[in-house]
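As noted in the main text, all predictions were made from sequence alone. Below is one such record, for Glycine zipper 2TM domain-containing protein.
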Amino acid sequence: MNLQAKLLLSALCVGALPVAQAADFEEFGRVVRVTPQVEQVNRPRQECRTEYVQVQQPQQQRSAGGAIIGGIAGALLGNQVGGGSGRSAATAAGAIAGAITGDRLDNNGGNSGGGVQEQAVKQCRTVDHWESRNNGYEVTYDYRGRNYTSLMSYDPGQRVRLRVSVEPAQQ
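Prediction:
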C-alpha cells in the first residue's frame, strides 16, 4: 500500500470517529423546582429523674430481758428501803420502777424503730424523639421545552448536567 492510500485511510478513520462518539453527549437542563424529600424518624430515648419517697422502716423486736432484770433489781432495792407493811409496798414499787427502767435501757429508750425515712428512687421512661432526615431531592428541570422530574441525592443548583443518548428509530 502506498503512502497516499495510507493517508486517505487514516483521514477517513479520524473523520468517522466523531460520528461514532456523537451517540452519547452531555448537555445541561434548567432547574425549575427542587423539593427536599424529608422523612420523620423516631429515635426513642430514656428520660430519668430521681424522686424521694417516704419509706416506713420495719419495727425492731422488743426484748423482755431488760424489764425482768430491772424488775428484780428494783424489788431488791425496794425491799431494803421499807420496814414492816411498807416493805411490801416499797418492794412492789421498786419492782415496777426497775422493770420500766430496764425495759427502756434494753430497748433504746422506748424507740423501737418503725420510723419514716426518705429514700431516693430513680424513675425512667422511654420517650419518642422525632427527627427530620433528608432523603434526597425531587428535581424538576426543563430540557428543550419539556419538563422532566428525577430523584437526586443532592441539590443541583440552577442547572443540572444531563447525559443525552441518541439512537436511530427502529422500523
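The longest strand covers residues 24-42. The radius of gyration is 52 Å. These features were considered when defining construct boundaries for the mutagenesis experiments described in Section 2.9.
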